[in-house]
Design a protein that fits this description.
Layout: H1 6-19, H2 23-30, H3 36-48, H4 50-57, H5 61-78, H6 82-107, H7 113-130, H8 138-149, H9 154-164, H10 171-175
Helix pairs in contact: 1-6, 2-5, 3-4, 3-5, 8-9
C-alpha cells in the first residue's frame, strides 16, 4: 500500500472486504450444535442438577451457556442485511487504516524527503519479511493428510515448500489459491496434533 495514494488505500480496503467472512460463513460458525428444543431441555435440567447433566450428556454448564450465545448471534445474523454488513466492515477497515496512516505519518515527521523514502522502503521490507503471505490452514493440512493416506505425497511436499518460504509471491502457490480465504466447507474442519 502506497501511503500517499488514496486509490491504493481504497484498493486495499476492497481486497480486505473480499477476505472477510460473509453472513453465510458467519452463520455457519455461529450455528448451535443442537436444536432449540434440546437446548432448552438441557438448560432446564442443568439448572436443577448441572453435574448430572454433565455426567450423562457430556455437556457442561459452560457449553450450554455458549450454545445460547451462539443461538443469539445466529439469529441476529439471519436478520442482517449483507449491504449493511459490508458498509459496517468497510467503515471499520477505513478507521483502522486511518489510524495506521496517522501512525506512519507520526513516525516520519521531521524527516527529509530522502529519509522518508528510506523509511518507507525499510517499513515495507520489514513487513514483507515478517508477515507471511501464505498460512497453513486446517483445510489445507486435512487435504494433504487425506491424499497422503492414499499414498499421494505431492500435496504434502508442496505445502512443505510453501511453508519453507511463506513470505514470497511464488506463482506456483498462487495457482493453488493458498493465499485465498478458506472455502465455506472448510469452516468446521479441525485438525489435531495427532493427525
Amino acid at each position: 500500500m502506497d501511503i500517499n495514494n488514496k486509490a491504493s488505500t481504497e484498493e486495499l480496503i476492497e481486497y480486505l472486504l473480499t477476505q472477510g467472512s460473509t453472513i453465510e460463513e458467519l452463520s455457519e460458525k455461529k450455528k448451535p450444535e443442537i436444536s432449540n428444543q434440546e437446548l432448552q431441555k438441557l438448560a432446564e435440567m442443568a439448572q436443577r442438577n448441572p453435574f448430572l447433566v454433565a455426567y450423562y450428556t457430556g455437556y457442561s454448564l459452560q457449553w450450554i451457556t455458549k450454545q445460547f450465545q451462539l443461538k443469539k448471534e445466529y439469529e441476529s445474523l439471519q436478520s442482517t442485511n449483507p449491504l449493511e454488513k459490508r458498509n459496517n466492515d468497510k467503515a471499520l477497515w477505513m478507521g483502522f487504516i486511518q489510524l495506521y496512516l496517522d501512525r506512519l505519518a507520526e513516525d516520519i515527521q521531521g524527516l527529509s524527503p530522502e529519509e522518508k523514502m528510506i523509511a518507507q522502503h525499510d517499513r515495507i521490507t520489514l513487513m514483507n519479511n515478517n508477515n507471511p503471505k501464505f498460512i497453513l490452514r486446517n483445510y489445507m493440512a486435512q487435504n494433504a493428510i487425506g491424499l497422503a493416506e492414499k499414498g499421494d505425497f505431492r500435496e504434502v511436499n508442496r505445502l512443505l515448500r510453501l511453508l519453507s518460504n511463506p513470505y514470497g509471491d511464488n506463482e506456483e502457490f498462487l495457482l493453488y489459491n493458498y493465499d485465498s480465504k478458506p472455502p465455506l466447507n472448510a469452516l468446521k474442519i479441525c485438525v489435531t496434533c495427532s493427525s
